[in-house]
């Protein structure tokens, strides 16, 4: 079989003729123009990125002064009754005054959730709190279905102080219960932690959670509230989304500390989690309703006299 060979190049190529100096100069001018436009575009992107992230050359993210040390955030829902909402506010304000903290009480319906369940309000409220209190060291979200019971316990001294948190951190703890291949990192130190959570019998619970005021926390809240995750329509909405992103995003797991439930999230119902005992910091009423025997107001009435007496003597 024979194959056609390509024609050979001529062994007598035409003589080299340099381009005119005028054409070369014009080309160099065009290249300089394109290069200048490209550099200008990249510089504009750099400035815009720096403005949006606060990391442009010569600027840094605002460093919180620690005043106040902690802001307590509770989303108020008047469906549980105006009287109950007032009791919750009184409870938070009384505790905050004792420790030099601030309180923030956004209402259900304050934010446009674009069709997402109202329980997502907590995530937007936390993002709002970071902007509203730029000098706070920590943001403590405590759900409305809870009361602070022990005024002598300080969030930033008795939970978040390096030595205290170091002893409480549950290392190699399964993220989902009863067992999970995803566990908290054993090598983390308290100064690396930006998110503090507890677990109940079902798993991670975000009804009492602490965030450090940091750029990471802004990233975390933006990730948690991402439209993609909200579109998954998890059964427990933001709770299951939280569990999901902790398990599958190492950038979040690497900043997480799980601590014993009764540290800041004891339950009035022992069938759901660790039961409240005298001296515990917080009591929660998971699943309490707006009306009836299991109403939040009815549950709280069992504890109101105790916390008011403790706060009066603190």
From TrEMBL:
One of its GO terms (molecular function) is alpha-1,6-mannosyltransferase activity. GO terms for biological process: protein N-linked glycosylation. GO terms for cellular component: mannan polymerase complex. Pfam families: Glyco_transf_34. Residues 1-21 are annotated as: Disordered. Residues 1-11 have a biased composition (Low complexity). The keyword Glycosyltransferase applies. Keywords: Glycosyltransferase, Transferase. Belongs to the glycosyltransferase 34 family. This is Related to alpha-1,2-galactosyltransferase. It comes from Cephalotrichum gorgonifer.
């Amino acid at each position: 079989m024979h194959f056609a060979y390509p024609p050979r190049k001529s062994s007598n190529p035409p003589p080299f003729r340099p381009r005119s100096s005028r054409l070369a100069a014009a080309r160099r001018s065009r290249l300089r123009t394109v290069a200048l436009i490209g550099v200008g575009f990249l510089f504009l992107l750099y400035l815009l990125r720096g403005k949006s992230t606060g990391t442009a050359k010569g600027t840094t993210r605002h460093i919180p002064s620690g005043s106040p040390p902690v802001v307590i955030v509770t989303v108020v829902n008047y469906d549980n009754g105006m009287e109950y909402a007032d009791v919750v506010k009184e409870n938070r304000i009384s505790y905050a005054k004792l420790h030099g903290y601030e309180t923030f009480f956004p209402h259900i319906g304050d934010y446009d959730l674009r069709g997402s369940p109202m329980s997502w309000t907590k995530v937007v409220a936390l993002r709002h709190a970071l902007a509203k209190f730029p000098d706070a060291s920590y943001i403590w979200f405590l759900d409305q279905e809870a009361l602070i019971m022990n005024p002598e316990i300080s969030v930033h001294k008795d939970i978040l102080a390096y030595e205290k948190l170091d002893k409480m951190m549950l290392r190699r703890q399964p993220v989902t219960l009863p067992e999970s291949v995803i566990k908290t990192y054993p090598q983390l130190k308290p100064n690396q932690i930006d998110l503090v959570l507890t677990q109940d019998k079902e798993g991670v619970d975000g009804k009492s959670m602490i965030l450090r005021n940091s750029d990471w926390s802004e990233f975390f809240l933006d990730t948690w509230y991402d439209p993609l995750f909200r579109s998954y329509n998890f059964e427990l909405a933001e709770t299951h989304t939280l569990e999901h992103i902790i398990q599958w995003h190492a950038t979040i797991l690497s900043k997480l500390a799980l601590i014993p439930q009764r540290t800041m999230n004891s339950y009035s119902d022992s069938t759901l989690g660790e039961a409240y005992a005298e001296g515990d910091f917080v009591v929660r009423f998971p699943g309490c309703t707006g009306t009836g025997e299991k109403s939040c107001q009815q549950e709280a009435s069992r504890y109101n006299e105790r916390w008011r007496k403790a706060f009066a003597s603190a």
